[in-house]
Amino acid sequence: MKKYLIPLLFFSIILSLTNTSFAHSGNVMIGFVDGLRHPVIGLDHLVAMISVGAISAQIGGLAIWFVPGLFVTGMLMGSSLAVLIYYLSNISNPNQFVLYLLENFADYIYFIVEFGIAFSVLFLGSIICFNKKLPLIYISAIIFSFGITHGAAHGISIPYVIKPYMFISGFCLGTVLLHLLGVAIGYSSIVYTYIDKTLRLSGILIFFFGIYLITNLL
User: Fold this and answer.
1) Looking at residue 101, what is its pLDDT?
2) Which domain does 65 fall in, by range?
3) What is the pTM of this model?
């Protein structure tokens, strides 16, 4: 019975976080606490951020801290780009170049962000399932790009938050906590065979969830 305790605890945490996000959606966002909850607004964000931590633990060494750190850095860049696009779109008299970009590329940017998030779920799920250790330079570039797309999704909310800087601090901390949860799960999978099997099964489910997200976009 004990060997099933940690997997059950893992899935209980996932479900409780997801339920919290559904209860939170639709409310006015104020600051830090709302930012802390924001990474679990969607199951796609939640599983991707935990997966990043799990994969970094499986790679080991420098990757344990470097890979999640790159994700957070990319997330901040993506958030900044989303805020920039918002303010450009609200300029009363934009110049012709800005107007051209907004009219011709706004929809493509939205699709790229959504597709990037969906593909990150699919990719991370496959890596977890096969326990594939890619070279650090490749996985770093991929995780960084995933961070940009997830950050852009967070950044869309920033202009509507009452205390944006506190909100940003909150969702950064929330992301780090999810990464740490993933690292703990990844470490446990190295030590305990049954956790490794549970994690690999989770990877398959995450992979098919990514396929589902992508098909909904096409």
Assistant:
1) 66
2) 2-217
3) 0.80
